[in-house]
Fold these 2 entries.
Entry 1:
Amino acid sequence: MTRRYLEDLAIGESWGSREVTIEEQDIIEFGRGFDPQPFHLDVEAAKASPFGGLIASGWHLASLAMRLCVEARSYGDTPVVGIGVDELRWYSPVRPGDRVHVERELVEILEVPDKPRRGTVKARVDLVNQNGDLVMRMYALSSVPKRKPADGEGAR
């Protein structure tokens, strides 16, 4: 695999990930470890919740989206550093047996004046279910190296 630098990226560039099936056991296991609410832990208790059944934690979905993005290696072998997330939203519950995938699009590429060797990339990351419904959206911010420093920046 090759490296991709800030100069190689373009606004509008997009890709889709592989599809993952959300299993009941995965929902419960993540809930136990990180979001121990009844509608993530217990099938019977979840029936009495506002969701009417077991659902995946939103944090489970955000973590899964991260995994799918990393696996896709859309920056190739380039070391990319996550620097934040903007506007994380959950739109629809994800239930056992649902299948989800990521659709990602680069929406902003910025020079960073005080960091001549790196720039910032903002990507819209959508998690979509098997019916084409948007279940989660976030804007991931990444620090991506430049191929070479800006003119006059030398070896800083």
Entry 2:
Amino acid sequence: MAGDYYEILGVSRNASKDEIKSAYRKMARKYHPDVNQDPGAEERFKEISRAYEVLSDPETKARYDRFGEAGVGGAGSGGVGFDPTDMGGFADIFETFFGGGFGGGTSTQTRRRGPTRGDDLRLDLRLKFREAVFGGEKEIKIPHLETCSSCNGSGAKKGSSAKTCGTCGGTGQVRRATRTPFGSFAQVSTCPTCNGEGQIIEEKCDSCGGQGRKQVNKKLKITIPAGVDNGTRLRVSSEGDAGTRGGPAGDLYVYLTVESDSHFRREGINILSEISISYLQAILGCKIKVPTIDGDFEVQIPAGLQPNTVLTLEDKGVPKLGNSVSRGDHLLTVKVDIPTKISGEERDLLEKLAQIKGEHTSKKGFEGFLESIFHK
């Protein structure tokens, strides 16, 4: 055993028995392997349990104070130390983790199952592209368990009540003692008659069949925040299944999927789209209206624009999730259409232009001229 037992529990050498017990409970709950999966947690829990085993017994503690580990070498292996009938803190921890208990220290009320929180539910919801961008209200329909209004969740028929289970005497547990050469051991398990409830319902509620809950289809209006995307998860508090024995309801988790749009694409909070203009518009420049998520927007095309130029329309993108005032940009890729056929008049004009620019078109023809314009 490495380290001083007092240091392991974080108490002084003058700590009282109650202070030692309180420190042990706190640390054991923190490091128990069933709740702490960190590497080394199990070994730490063993150290804590060993320290409490020694310091919780006055005689063992006195020997440890005088001789150290050498004075308590027998503790933990059948010698002095842990008394299974005086395991207040240790029993509480088993109660918390495993739902079981030990004799003597826990009451019937503690061992019986208490209120249980209802299950969380999941709903997958598809949104249109613009719904995801701007958000809004959405009506959904969910099947979930609600507390039975006829019996108020008791499961008993109106005018009757549950009775104490005769098998376990209301504890919700049955105990079986086994004697071995090393001593007596008690095994505690859930009562098979009442399934750990501690009570038996003889006259069941006609509405819920004794379950205390009923399956109900419920309509809800939920708020979709602006800027959600594929995989966004929304939590709707207390709209999961109702709890049992007065326990709180679980939550509803809505997972969002966004449909694609025929015109727009999305990258984070930016929106991407493409437009095509004629070669003359690209050469001379122009003003055109382009579709954005907010509607048509007039864009200035500068003269001499090259194919596949990306123009940035600021603040025309997706609102930032959680801060709808801040928006991304709209990135507009401009394509240039080069015609494959032209009229005779168009050819004459273009050939005149080619002569002015000193371009030779007799071999390359019209396509060669346009190529020379866009790739100089």
